[in-house]
Amino acid sequence: MSAIAESIFSPETAARFDHLATIYPLKRSALVPMLLYAQDELGYVSEAAIQEIAKRLDLFDLDVRNVLSYYSMLRTKPAGKYNVQVCTNISCMLRGGYEILDHCKAKLGIGHKQVTPDGLFSLEEVECIGACCWAPAIQVNYDFHDNLNVVKVDRILADYAEGLGKDVK
Amino acid sequence: MPTNVSHPDEVIVLKRRFGQGAVNIDKYVELDGYKAVQQAIAQGPEWIINTMKASGLRGRGGAGFPTGLKWSFVPKQSEKPKYVLVNGDESEPGTCKDHVLFLEDPHAIIEGTMIAGLAIGAKLGFIYLRGEYRYLLKIMEQAVADAYAKGFLGKNIFGSGLDFDVITQTGAGAYEVGEESALMESLEGKRGVPRIKPPFPAVVGLYGGPTVINNAETIASVPHILLMGGEAYAKLGTERNGGTRLFGISGHVERPGVYELPMGYNMEKAIYEVAGGVKDGKKLKAVVPGGSSCPVLTADELNVGLDFDQMAKAGTMLGSGGIVVLDESVSIVEFALRVISFYQHESCGWCIPCREGTDWIKKTLARVYAGGGTKKDIDNVQYLADNMMGRTFCPLGDAAAMPTLGFVKKFRKEFEDYVDGKRAGTPVMSEPELVGAGH
């Protein structure tokens, strides 16, 4: 039985949230993880998710929104099923990060923070993802791909389009 | 997947269990895992802190504060519970060392957290990973679950009568949260805005309790230090800079990778021998020595030992150990613009000198880069950066100002050439007006 009578989340996520609210010295500490896990399930942090999380943590909706707007991974609009995040920070930049970003823009026909019409891909230019020694690197959702060139990127995008790509959650 | 690299000059302490399947708890135990924590229990807090002081270990996040000293600042008696907080929010551009530690040796981080807890009298430790590191968070979560299943964590650890719990935590994308007070705010479920210091976290930290905050690499070093002895570890490095550290060498080198080198190792050798020299036989132009916040070094300034003191003497910082090598093709103006765009995006906006300074430096450099700049713009960039230094709650303002000053002072001619319409280097941005994740 979930702590919330009618959760908008799947039973697994609801159970996880029940648990998260109990493990910290102050339950508000569960807020950032909850927002991210909510996004993992819904594709973005929806109004309903904000309201339920606020209720679970005894916060105002405004408190949740205030935190939500701070973190760059959290979004309030849907991304594509596969969110392609291209790092262009220094180590990647020096090894072709911008070439890969431009290639993805042309290949997917979309720009920064845009979604393809079929909803399959979205594209984002991101700051350093901690793969500097294996640059250039991208993340598709949570999955890292490194030591890239445009040929490898084409294969990765084709794999995802055919449903063969890994979807780490 | 990160590739394992090696070089004969490496001195292996932290990487000892790499490539041996130490993610598996039985393998970790077979490789002397969870021995150091038992030794720590037997010898007591004073011995732990003295060993850490003797080791000369200094914070691997970048500030280089002596770890043993930091632990000794935590009051013995406290009305509020004490905590250990491991900073795995690795976000400094050029840095990916904690990435390989979480991947290869997660139990070393758990064991180090336990030892820090024993040293200061904490019963709860947090291991905070940046949100992007989801697959590493899963590895950490499994390692923590395995340690509970073996009875290594939880009640009465190793029959000591002491309890210790570990909670793993994910961030959700924010460079600023790597700063210790912003990290605590984030862990308390708030925006990652820094706190004013003092009080320092050792006195008033997480939930108001005394808190030790250490970088993941610092914590992972702890069990090794206890097993080999503080003095033996100290001897591997240079004076006041004990041991080894993970150097991530990236950018224009033949063999980029995370190498474990003794503190004080010569930077020129690290680049030309360990990392195989500049890629494709090109000439080296500059090096960003310890993550993007460290002032740049020119090709003539590389004959310097990689430790905190020698790097400070050379006018830069050892930082997070992320060495980024730039070859002759790089436009320093473009590179400086990319660096400031990052800090402009990541500035939390709390302190005005940082929020406005990063924004105006970005705008001004973008104009110089686009060809519409004036000589006065270059002076303005320097003026802005000078006025950010030391005027913010947390070091993000300095982290943005220091590299900017380095670029403008050491490569001023290149900026002036841009103003005059002569452009050095090969630009790589196709849409420079849209630079960085913040556009």
User: Can you tell me the CATH topology of the largest domain in chain A?
Assistant: Glutaredoxin
Structural class of chain B: alpha/beta
Query: So, CATH architecture of the largest domain in chain A?
Result: 3-Layer(aba) Sandwich
Mean pLDDT of chain A: 96
- Spans of at least 5 consecutive residues with low confidence of chain B: none
Highest CATH level, the class of the largest domain in chain A: Alpha Beta
Helix percentage range of chain A: 40-55%
Distance between the termini of chain B: 29 Å
Q: Main β-sheet of chain A: number of strands, strand sense, barrel status?
A: 5 strands, mixed
How many strands, what sense, and barrel or not for the largest sheet of chain B?
5 strands, mixed
Structure annotation, total helices of chain A: 7
Tell me the count of domains of chain B. Answer: 3
Give the spatial strand order of the biggest sheet of chain B.
Answer: 6-5-9-7-8
Helical proportion of chain B, percent range = 40-55%
Low-confidence stretches of chain A: none
Overall structural domain count of chain A: 2
Strand order in the sheet with the most strands of chain A: 2-3-1-4-5
- The number of distinct β-strands of chain A equals 5
SS elements, strand count of chain B: 9
Distance between the termini of chain A: 24 Å
